[in-house]
Design a protein that fits this description.
This protein is of the alpha/beta class. 45% of the residues lie in helices and 16% in strands. The protein has 13 helices and eleven strands. The protein has helices spanning 2-10, 16-38, 42-67, 74-98, 104-107, 127-132, 134-140, 152-162, 167-185, 204-215, 224-232, 240-246, 348-352, and strands at residues 122-125, 147-151, 190-194, 218-221, 237-239, 256-260, 263-264, 271-274, 280-284, 293-304, 307-314. The strands form two sheets. Strands 6-10-11-9-8-7 form a six-stranded mixed sheet, with no helix packed on it. Strands 3-2-1-4-5 form a five-stranded parallel sheet. Strand 10 (293-304) and strand 11 form a beta hairpin.
């Protein structure tokens, strides 16, 4: 309305109606630009404005150089100056808006002369790793010194999950929000919630990949599919599950441990137990010990995509008294002794021989 009233009173065009139409168009354009800029973070706007100033400054220098050329006509000089202003201003604005870390250009030189890039690495958190919660435990140990980046579209997805009608999803979403509060309260970390969004991209995973590219960051996730897609697009990924597998204690064949048999295994007479880190332990001949803690001896360790599997057998102390010292293999049937042959019929010679008691002793 302000633009329309100003154009009606000033009448920049010859006709009042055309002037009012011009003022209305300018007002609608300003409102549309405001709606567009509302979805953009303030750092991107400041970066774009700084890039525009740098581009126009370069264009002014080029214009001064062009004006000193005596052989060019005035129309050609005007065209070249305007082209340089438009091209350099546009390029400076786009490149300045593409990076929201423009201030690090000034902060990097004042960080010391020791060399190297001392700024913290950006880590973009996925929705699944926030709900998982182990990232907060890792952060509290002090092993993370990076800057954690949480996007607004990730928060919206968490809120959508927390408002779900299904109880399981609702609990997962609320757990994720609680984990975010723990991360923000952690004074050892620099947790930032960014407004950067990509309206042209609908999938959250693809938005995370694009955000990581813009910020030159790594993605922290435990989603297998996101891990593969991000690697194919050239984005580094930190997988919490791979970290957990790497931190599991090394178990060698021959070692002894105590486990609690929880359930029956797939094979006959097997028992299954789990370590504190979730590693599955398969014990031979342990079915009758379900619900009890037994001592086992490790026979082999199998590495799978889901983690490690430990195979073992009962130790001698855990066996019943009648089974100690016996092999786990079934015993082979022993050969039966041959049936006793009938004694031969007495002959005259044998019947005439005296018995042992009748032989006189000397």
């Amino acid at each position: 309305m302000f633009s329309l009233g100003t154009a009606w009173l000033a009448q920049p065009l010859s006709s009042p109606l055309w002037s009012a139409a011009l003022g209305l168009t300018v007002g609608i354009g300003i409102i549309g630009l405001e709606l567009y800029l509302r979805e953009r973070p303030i750092a991107m706007l400041i970066g774009g404005f700084g890039g525009l100033l740098a581009g126009l400054t370069a264009a002014a220098i080029v214009g001064v150089l062009i004006s000193f050329q005596p052989g060019l006509p005035a129309a050609s000089k005007t065209y070249l100056v305007l082209t340089a202003a438009l091209a350099l201003g546009y390029l400076g604005m786009t490149r300045g808006a593409a990076s929201d870390r423009w201030w690090e250009l000034f902060a990097g030189s004042a960080k010391g002369a020791a060399g190297g890039d001392s700024r913290p690495q950006n880590l973009v958190l996925d929705t699944s790793v926030i709900i998982d919660g182990r990232i907060a435990d890792i952060a509290e140990t002090g092993f993370l010194s990076e800057r954690l980046i949480i996007a607004q579209f990730v928060l919206r997805e968490l809120q959508h999950v927390a408002d779900s009608a299904e109880a399981t999803k609702r609990n997962r979403g609320r757990r994720g929000l609680d984990i975010l509060q723990r991360l923000q309260k952690n004074k050892k970390l620099d947790t930032i919630i960014t407004d950067m969004d990509f309206p042209n991209i609908r999938e959250v995973d693809l938005k995370l990949i694009e955000l990581a590219k813009q910020l030159d960051a790594k993605i922290v996730t435990n989603d297998f599919n996101l891990n593969k897609v991000a690697q194919l697009r050239g984005v580094l990924v930190l997988n919490i599950n791979e970290l957990a597998n790497a931190l599991r204690p090394v178990v060698l064949p021959g070692e002894t441990m105590q486990v609690f048999i929880l359930k029956e295994g797939k094979e006959y007479n097997q028992g299954v137990a789990y370590l504190d880190d979730g590693t599955m332990v398969v014990v031979d001949h342990a079915r009758r010990f379900i619900g009890r803690a037994v001592d086992i001896s490790v026979t082999s360790v199998l590495q799978t995509t889901a983690g490690k599997m430990i195979f073992g057998k009962l130790s001698e102390e855990s066996r019943p008294a009648g089974e100690r010292g016996l092999s786990d293999r079934p015993e082979r049937p022993r050969a039966m002794p041959p049936a006793s042959l009938p004694s031969p019929a007495p002959t005259p010679e044998t019947s005439a021989m005296p018995a042992a008691s009748e032989i006189p002793q000397t």
